[in-house]
Design goal:
Layout lengths: L4 H4 L10 H5 L11 H4 L3 H16 L8
């Protein structure tokens, strides 16, 4: 099984202002990618989801109802 790329880079916190990293974990319909497709561990998947939601509230990423 592949290891989470945030774990291999030793990333502790995923910031909502780093849009390039967040956009790679969002689908073409602007929905958060599932964990099995993004290949993230549970810890980093939750951080990505939280960061995407904050970025949506601040209008940095498009909101999807």
């Amino acid at each position: 099984m592949k290891k989470c790329h945030f774990c291999t880079d030793a990333v502790e916190y995923i910031d909502y202002k780093k849009l390039s990293k967040l956009r790679s974990h969002v689908t073409s319909f602007n929905r958060i990618q599932a964990r099995r497709y993004s290949k993230l561990c549970l810890h980093h998947q939750k951080q990505v989801a939280r960061a995407v939601k904050i970025a949506r509230e601040m209008a940095l990423l498009p909101f999807v109802p």
